[in-house]
Write a sequence for this structure.
């Protein structure tokens, strides 16, 4: 009986250990299922939060302006670097390959629609010397053609200022933009093209630089980019810098009627032709003749005016003319006497000897 009792005890222990294992496995399965359910709940909450954020941002991002920035084939190095700087400054800009000059400019409207862009900045290069900038509104127009002068890029200038990439700029315009209708239209186009939309996905919620537009002689527009250093509003130039001279203003996008033609605009080809022919020398000569005539007329007017001698007789030299003539006569007589004495001294003395 002792052996059977021992066998029963061993069987009971094995059954108890098997039950404990089953209980442990069941508890582990519950824990794993709870962990998996928690992970799934976390993964579900994360996309929900991200979707909520995107929805909020999409609701706030109402201005969906996008700018297509590209250039033509044959553009020089400075134009390409300027285009790159503008792309870096505009987070809502999109690029594209170079456009062949043989194609018409209406192709840019189709490219902008494919890229889902509403504005276009096209740098057109001619003869590898002249650079023209087109700014256009793709949907309804207008479009403006500029001649670009005095281009200086960021790498060329190496200014001390610096700004965050993709930060929103402040657009500062001169008061003269509100004086003429064509300048008002240019101001609206520049604001819509270069202004970064609020709550844009690629933009940063910082304002640390200023785009300044000032009107110079001949309605030329000077562009500068400055950094806002601190709360004292001190400015340091970042770059790039260039000057825009308006050529024409069209009603449509790269087409349409001419709304304004700049009378002060002179083609660079005409300037180079005059320089080669030497007409500039003739013009300078004519300007010098006119300046000399004006100067001579002023001199004659001054000489014709009668002036009163306020000093009186102190500067009247007519009374002392006789005294001056007597003194001069005495000096001349003394000089003549000295000459006579020298001649007598140099003359040989008579000794009476004969040869």
């Amino acid at each position: 009986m002792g052996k059977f009792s021992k066998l029963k005890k061993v069987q009971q222990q094995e059954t108890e250990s098997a039950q404990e294992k089953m209980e442990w496995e069941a508890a582990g399965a519950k824990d794993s299922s709870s962990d998996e359910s928690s992970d799934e709940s976390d993964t579900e909450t994360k996309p929900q939060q991200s979707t909520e954020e995107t929805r909020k941002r999409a609701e706030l991002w109402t201005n969906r302006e996008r700018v297509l920035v590209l250039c033509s084939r044959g553009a020089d190095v400075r134009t390409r670097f300027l285009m790159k700087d503008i792309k870096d400054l505009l987070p809502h800009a999109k690029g594209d390959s170079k456009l062949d000059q043989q194609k018409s400019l209406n192709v840019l409207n189709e490219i902008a629609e494919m890229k889902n862009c509403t504005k276009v900045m096209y740098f057109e290069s001619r003869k590898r010397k002249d650079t023209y900038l087109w700014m256009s509104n793709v949907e309804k127009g207008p479009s403006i053609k500029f001649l670009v002068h005095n281009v200086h890029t960021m790498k060329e200038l190496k200014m001390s200022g610096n700004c965050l990439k993709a930060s929103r700029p402040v657009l500062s315009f001169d008061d003269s933009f509100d004086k003429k209708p064509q300048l008002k239209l240019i101001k609206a186009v520049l604001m819509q093209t270069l202004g970064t939309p609020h709550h844009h996905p690629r933009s940063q919620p910082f304002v640390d630089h200023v785009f300044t537009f000032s009107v110079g002689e001949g309605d030329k527009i000077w562009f500068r980019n400055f950094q806002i250093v601190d709360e004292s509003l001190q400015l340091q130039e970042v770059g790039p810098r260039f000057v825009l001279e308006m050529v024409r203003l069209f009603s449509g996008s790269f087409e349409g009627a001419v709304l304004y033609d700049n009378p002060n605009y002179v083609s660079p080809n005409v300037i180079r032709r005059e320089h080669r022919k030497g007409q500039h020398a003739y013009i300078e000569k004519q300007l010098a003749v006119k300046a000399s005539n004006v100067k001579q007329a002023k001199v004659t007017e001054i000489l014709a005016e009668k002036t009163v001698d306020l000093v009186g007789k102190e500067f009247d030299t007519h009374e002392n003319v006789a005294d001056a003539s007597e003194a001069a006569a005495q000096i001349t007589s003394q000089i003549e006497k000295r000459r006579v004495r020298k001649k007598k001294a140099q003359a040989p003395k008579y000794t009476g000897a004969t040869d």
Summary: The chain has a mean pLDDT of 82. The first strand starts at residue 67 and ends at 71. Helices lie at 2-60, 77-89, 107-114, 154-157, 181-194, 268-277, 279-304, 321-346. DSSP finds eight helices and eleven strands in the chain.
